[in-house]
Design a protein that fits this description.
The complex is a heterodimer of chains A (about 250) and B (about 600). Chain A is of the alpha+beta class. Chain A has 3 domains: about 100 residues, Tetratricopeptide repeat domain (Serine Threonine Protein Phosphatase 5, Tetratricopeptide repeat, Alpha Horseshoe); about 70 residues; about 60 residues, Roll (SH3 type barrels). Chain A is built from 8 helices and 8 strands, in the order ααβααααααβββββββ. In chain A, the strands form 2 sheets. A 5-stranded antiparallel sheet of chain A has the order 7-6-5-2-8. In chain A, α1 packs antiparallel against α2 and α2 runs antiparallel to α3. The relative contact order of chain A is 0.09. Chain B is about 30% helix and about 40% strand. In chain B, the strands form 8 sheets. In chain B, strands 22, 24, 25, 26, 27, 29 and 30 form a 7-stranded mixed sheet that branches. In chain B, strands 11, 13, 15, 16 and 17 form a 5-stranded antiparallel sheet that branches. Chain B folds into 4 domains: about 140 residues, Immunoglobulin-like, CATH 2.60.40; about 130 residues, Immunoglobulin-like, CATH 2.60.40; about 120 residues, Immunoglobulin-like (Sandwich); about 120 residues, Four Helix Bundle (Hemerythrin (Met), subunit A) (Up-down Bundle), CATH 1.20.120. With about 600 residues, chain B is of the alpha+beta class. Classes of the chains: A alpha+beta (about 250), B alpha+beta (about 600). At the A-B interface, α1, β1, α3, α5 and α7 of A face α4, β32 and α5 of B. β1 of chain A pairs antiparallel with β32 of chain B, so a sheet runs across the interface.
Chain lengths: ~250, ~600
């Protein structure tokens, strides 16, 4: 039974592994183009990887770099953000993203976060989503191990000791589960986007004739809220909200 | 005329007669035959004797002054005959106020109780043509200058171009000085009060003297001041009276002082004298209508007729380059109060305060001119921008409607500029941190493709994840169940035996004790040995058949039982075996053995636990 299961898992990953091999060569060719300063070619190659449904933080990071080199800052920011989503703790990604953000027009003062939220975020970003999954599985395995020990041992001291550890690991597997779930939600939901239109009027209502509340420029990151037909309600990191056309931004 | 001469003749005749018949009462009236209307003249009644004079009653004439009396006495000696003549005259200053042939009022004198009446002389009052003073002076013997009266001779007046206007509609106010006399100077001009008006002066240059005919009379006219007034509120407004002191020169006459003067200028000398007159203009009432209530949005209260022209010099430029928006508003009306039309510039534009230039001309028709606003605009970011069309709204008093002049909409295409990006118009200072960044380059690309995944794949909550957790769980449960089962299989007998061991031992010992009481020696030893064997067999989970003394010894050693206890057990067991086959022992020995057995079992039980 178990053998069949593990076999099926392996079979499932074979095509991916095969793909990864050709993807690797493609990626390296793209990197060569980048090194020669042929950024457009490298972008098409990186893009072809993504069109083939392959992603990795490195592909996004390199794409961001290539766009940055040809001075398309909004695109660069978009791909850095995508890379960050997969690998939130990567120093290179964060550095380049911060650098790209100095080139955009809007300087938005973020509302200070509640310190617990910041802590929570730091914890979530400590590992990427995949790592959290492994942590979760590992912690759960330990939990089960201690449960087994508890049930099997005859010695009262061993029983007591394994009971305490089981309790600790129940808590750990719950927290790792919650954090992992959070990390997974952050990765799979696309509720942030980057503005692509050079100058956008943010309106008070989903209507061309409504008054302009403020103006945003390309490269600014916004959170997505409600939508209404062609219009999208967005929120800035400083808390301001308003409507803009869906054609004005691209989701991360 | 003829008739009049006759009178004169009669008077002369009478005089002549008087001369002959001295001391005859002569009562005469002296007045000009003709006077101009409004002219002043002297009316003199003379009598040649002392008399009581009763003044006349003026009806058709206005008495200005008098009577002033004078008397003269002359002595004549002719052919030794001395005759003296006394003359007394009463002079009135009179003004003709009615036209036509008028009878002079009659005066009376009483001489020696006899009453004499003055002759009923009539004079003709004509329409005035010339200076009235001149005639009156011309006919007078004694030169007395009339008191100067300003009425109708010198006056000031304000004129406005329109009396019924709208708020903000300009009117021209002209302040004029009229004079028949020569003007020497104007001093102490006091502006009227312009409550509710906004005033703008018109430069009229130097004061000029012009001629103007008012009511058929010609005047010297000086335009003192011209200004444009803009009413600021509705209702009945009043332009107050202005005040000035005019110095006019009037001709006065006097008699020649000496012969020399007489030779040079004649008997009467004319000269100019300055007379200062304080003049007040009448007030003016002006009706100001409020503007109609259907004011358009963007109307700032400008009244007149205007047209606006707006133009930009570039429609395509790079970010951070500048372009100009020029708005010219031309027309007539209150240019000074014009405000720039409100323009909704795209917020991204840096718009500097406009350069304003104004050209205005104030003419008799009002104020006209143009005002130009020049905006310097710098788009800070790329993109397509629109300056929406804006309007200039005004009220046209001619058509009595609001009118507007609308600009076109300007589309501006801003391409990417050079240099650093501006962080909005508001933030002029860049952080020091960010400046440090500007010189730096991005970090190099990663050379390894890393962990590739399908797009939007996720490991958490994935099949792999769930299956892993589930399989670990199931595996653990199965493992527990399996181990438990194994244990049960093994432990079913051993565990039970273990538990039963002491119980069985106790029961066997009890049976043994009953044999002890019955003194059944062989049965007692048999039971005791069974009890110990059975206990040990249960304890070590070994069948009785397989049990031997050596096995028991090794088992006990394995379970860390004291050597002395092991020895004791072997001794007890040996004693039992021995006694079973050689039953000669007394009861005391049996009792001792029994106690030892109980002790050792409890002891072993303790150590084995």
């Amino acid at each position: 039974m178990k053998k069949i299961l593990s076999l099926s898992i392996v079979l499932l990953f074979i095509p991916l592994i095969m793909l990864a091999d050709s993807a690797k060569t493609l990626f390296e060719i793209a990197n060569d183009h980048f090194n020669k300063g042929e950024y457009e070619q490298s972008i098409t190659l990186y893009d072809s990887l993504i069109r083939n449904n392959i992603e990795s933080s490195s592909i996004y990071f390199n794409l961001g770099n290539a766009w940055y080199k040809i001075d398309e800052i909004p695109k660069a920011i978009l791909f850095y953000e995508k890379a960050k989503k997969i690998d939130p703790n990567n120093k290179d990604i964060n550095y380049n993203l911060e650098l790209a953000n100095t080139h955009i027009a809007d300087r938005i003062e973020a509302v200070p976060e509640f310190f617990l939220k910041t802590w929570w975020k730091n914890i979530v970003y400590m590992f990427n989503e995949e790592e959290w999954t492994y942590i979760n599985i590992g912690v759960f395995s330990f939990l089960m191990l201690f449960i087994i020990i508890y049930f099997i041992s005859n010695k009262p001291s061993t029983k007591r000791f394994s009971f305490y550890f089981a309790v600790i690991f129940i808590l750990l597997s719950f927290t790792s589960g919650i954090i992992g779930y959070n990390s997974y939600k952050l990765k799979t939901t696309h509720n942030t986007s980057i503005i692509f239109t050079p100058t956008v009027n943010i309106r008070s209502a989903p209507d061309e004739n409504s008054s302009t509340i403020f103006i945003l420029h390309q490269g600014t990151k916004v959170s997505l809220l409600d939508e209404s037909k062609d219009w999208q309600k967005v929120k800035l990191s400083n808390g301001s909200e308003g409507w803009l056309l869906k054609t004005d931004f691209e989701k991360i | 005329m003829h008739y009049k001469n006759k009178y004169w003749l009669i008077i002369l005749l009478l005089l002549f007669v008087g001369e002959v018949k001295s001391q005859k009462v002569q009562f005469t009236v002296d007045a000009p035959a003709k006077v101009e209307l409004g002219g002043q003249f002297r009316l003199t009644y003379s009598i040649n004797q002392d008399a009581d004079f009763t003044g006349p009653n003026f009806k058709d004439f206005q008495l200005l002054g008098g009577p002033s009396t004078s008397s003269s006495t002359s002595m004549q000696i002719i052919n030794g005959r001395t005759s003296s003549t006394t003359k007394k005259s009463y002079t009135y200053y009179v003004k003709a106020i009615k036209l036509g042939k008028l009878k002079l009022p009659i005066a009376k004198v009483i001489v020696n109780g006899k009453e004499y009446k003055s002759a009923p002389i009539s004079i003709e009052v004509l329409k005035s043509v010339n200076n009235p003073n001149a005639t009156s002076i011309a006919n007078s013997n004694t030169i007395k200058n009339a008191e100067f009266k300003a009425d109708g001779v010198v006056f000031v007046k304000s004129f406005v171009s329109k009396r019924n206007i709208y708020i903000g509609e300009p009117i021209i106010l002209t302040q004029k000085l009229y004079s028949k006399e020569r003007l020497a100077n104007i001093t102490d001009f006091k502006e009227p009060s312009y409550t509710g008006f906004w005033k703008e002066g018109i430069d009229i240059g130097e004061l000029k003297l012009t001629k103007e005919v008012v009511n058929g009379q010609s005047y010297n006219v000086v335009i003192l001041n011209k200004s444009v007034l803009f009413p600021q509120k509705s209702g009945k407004l009043e332009i107050g009276s202005f005040k000035l002191d005019a110095v006019i020169q009037i001709i006065k006459k006097r008699k020649a002082r000496d012969h020399f003067e007489q030779m040079m200028y004649g008997n009467v000398i004319q000269y100019y004298a300055n007379e200062t007159v304080t003049l007040n203009s009448p007030k003016l009432k002006i009706t100001v209508n409020a503007l109609p209530s259907n004011k358009p949005k963007g109307f700032t209260g400008v009244v007149g007729k205007f047209s606006m022209k707006a133009e930009i010099d570039k429609t395509e430029l790079k970010a951070n380059d500048a372009f100009n928006l020029k708005i010219t508003i031309k027309g007539s009306g209150n240019i000074g109060l014009l405000e720039a039309p409100k323009i909704n510039f795209p917020p991204d534009f840096e718009v500097y305060d406009p350069k304003v230039s104004k050209k205005s001309k104030k003419t008799a028709n009002g104020v006209s001119g143009s005002k130009t606003y020049e905006y310097l605009i710098i788009p800070r970011n790329e993109g397509d921008f629109t300056i929406p069309s804006f309007g200039f709204y005004y009220f046209n008093p001619q058509t009595e409607h609001y009118e507007s002049s609308i600009s076109p909409e300007f589309k501006i295409h801003v391409t990417k500029g050079e240099g650093i990006v501006f962080n909005g118009a508001a933030s002029s200072s860049v952080n020091r941190d960010e400046i440090q960044y500007l010189g730096k380059d991005i970090r190099y690309i990663s050379t390894a493709i890393g962990n590739t995944k399908e797009i939007d794949s996720h490991s958490f909550n994935s099949l792999k994840h769930i299956l892993s957790l589930l399989s670990i769980f199931v595996f653990s449960i199965l493992l527990i169940i399996y181990l438990k089962k194994q244990e049960k299989k093994k432990g079913n007998t051993s565990l039970m035996r273990l538990k039963k061991a002491t119980k069985m031992a106790k029961r066997r010992l009890k049976i043994a004790s009953s044999f002890l009481n019955n003194n059944d020696e062989s049965k007692f030893y048999e039971e005791t040995s069974k009890a110990i064997w059975g206990y040990l067999s249960d304890k070590f989970n070994i069948n009785l058949s397989e049990l031997s003394m050596d096995i028991i010894k090794t088992k006990l050693v394995d379970n860390k039982v004291n050597d002395t206890d092991i020895l004791e057990i072997t001794q007890i067991l040996e004693q039992c075996e021995y006694a079973r086959y050689a039953p000669s022992r007394n009861q005391h020995d049996m009792l001792e053995l029994y106690d030892r057995s109980v002790k050792i079992i409890s002891k072993i039980e303790k150590t084995l636990k």
